[in-house]
Recover the amino acids of this structure.
C-alpha cells in the first residue's frame, strides 16, 4: 500500500498564523501538528509521499522530525494543484496498489486498519466518525451497504445517522490511475464515484481533533495541557514566571514576573517581563514588550489580532 499526506494547502483558515508557521508544522507540545497523521500513514504505507507548497522547508523538516531515518518522498507544488491534482502529480512516486491518504491539520488516534482493509481497486473509501456537529462541518450519509448516499454541506443536514469525514481515505489503484491531470479538486472525483456507486465509507473508532483556525489550534493544545502548564526543555522561563494551563514551546522565553493563563507561546516568541497574557497564541521570532497585557488575541511579529470565538471540536467514537 502507498500513503500520502496532503500538506500543500495555503492554510487560509489559519491566517494570519499560517503566514508565520505552516499549519502542519505548528507545535503541539513538542511535536508538529502533522505528527499523528504521519505516523499513521507510515504504519500502512510501503511508500510515503508528502506534498508541499507553502513554507515547504518547514513542513519537510516537521515530517523528517517525526519519521527519523524513514524514507519519505516530497512532491513540490510551485503552484497549488488541489487535492486531486496533488495526488495525480505524485503518481510517479507510488508503487502498485491502493493509496491511503491523510490530512496534516488534525491530531488523532484512529484505528485505520478497517479503512486499509476496505481498499477496492475501483472504489474510494472515506474514513468516517459519528458526526459531532453537522452545523459546523459537512456531513456524510451512508446507505445500508456502505455506499455514500449524500454529502451535505455544513448546516444542510436535517437529522438521521450522519458521519464526519476524518481526512483519511483510501483510493483504489484504478481510481488513482484515472485521476485527471492536475490541477483539480477531490469533490468532482467523489461526485463521479458516488454516482457510479463507487464512493464508500467505513466508520472508524478512536480520537480525532481538528486545528483548522488559530482558535482551534489554541483549543487543541490546551486540551492536552494540565493546570500547571507545559514547557519545552528548550524553553527559557524566569523562576517567578507563572504558567496556568499554558504551553511554552521550543526556543521560546517568558520573562520575570509574567503570568500566562490558557495561552500558547510558540515558534520562537518571547514574553517581556511583567506581562499578563490570557487566552492568547503568541507566535513568531519576536519579543513582546515588557508589561504587555493581552486577552483573546493572536500576537504575531506583524501585529495583534482578535481571536474569533468557537473552539476546535474533538470527537471520540
Amino acid at each position: 500500500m502507498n500513503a500520502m499526506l496532503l500538506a500543500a494547502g495555503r492554510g487560509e483558515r489559519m491566517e494570519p498564523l499560517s503566514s508565520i508557521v505552516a499549519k502542519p508544522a505548528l507545535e503541539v507540545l513538542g511535536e508538529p501538528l502533522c505528527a499523528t497523521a504521519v505516523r499513521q500513514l507510515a504504519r500502512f504505507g510501503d511508500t510515503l509521499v508528502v506534498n508541499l507548497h507553502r513554507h515547504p522547508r518547514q513542513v519537510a523538516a516537521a515530517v523528517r522530525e517525526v519519521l527519523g531515518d524513514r524514507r519519505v518522498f516530497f512532491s513540490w507544488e510551485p503552484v497549488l494543484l488541489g487535492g486531486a491534482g496533488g495526488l495525480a502529480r505524485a503518481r510517479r512516486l507510488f508503487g502498485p496498489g491502493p493509496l491511503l491518504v491523510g490530512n496534516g491539520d488534525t491530531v488523532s488516534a484512529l484505528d485505520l486498519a478497517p479503512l486499509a482493509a476496505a481498499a477496492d481497486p475501483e472504489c474510494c473509501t472515506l474514513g468516517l466518525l459519528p458526526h459531532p456537529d453537522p452545523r459546523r462541518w459537512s456531513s456524510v450519509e451512508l446507505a445500508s451497504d456502505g455506499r455514500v448516499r449524500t454529502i451535505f454541506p455544513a448546516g444542510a443536514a436535517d437529522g438521521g445517522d450522519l458521519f464526519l469525514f476524518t481526512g483519511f481515505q483510501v483510493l483504489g489503484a484504478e481510481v488513482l490511475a484515472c485521476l485527471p491531470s492536475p490541477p483539480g479538486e477531490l469533490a468532482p472525483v467523489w461526485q463521479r464515484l458516488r454516482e457510479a456507486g463507487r464512493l464508500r465509507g467505513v466508520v472508524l473508532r478512536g480520537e480525532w481533533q481538528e486545528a483548522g483556525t488559530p482558535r482551534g489550534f489554541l483549543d487543541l493544545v490546551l486540551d492536552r495541557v494540565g493546570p500547571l502548564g507545559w514547557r519545552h526543555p528548550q524553553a527559557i522561563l524566569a523562576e517567578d514566571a507563572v504558567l496556568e494551563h499554558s504551553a511554552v514551546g521550543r526556543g521560546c522565553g517568558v520573562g520575570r514576573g509574567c503570568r500566562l493563563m490558557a495561552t500558547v507561546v510558540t515558534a520562537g516568541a518571547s514574553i517581556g517581563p511583567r506581562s499578563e497574557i490570557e487566552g492568547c497564541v503568541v507566535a513568531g521570532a519576536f519579543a513582546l514588550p515588557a508589561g504587555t497585557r493581552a486577552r483573546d488575541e493572536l500576537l504575531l511579529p506583524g501585529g495583534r489580532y482578535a481571536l474569533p470565538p468557537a473552539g476546535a471540536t474533538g470527537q471520540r467514537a
Summary: The radius of gyration is 20 Å. The chain has a mean pLDDT of 94. Residues 2-210 form a domain with the Spore Coat Polysaccharide Biosynthesis Protein SpsA; Chain A fold (CATH 3.90.550.10). The helical segments are 35-44, 56-67, 82-89, 113-117, 173-177, 186-195, 214-222.
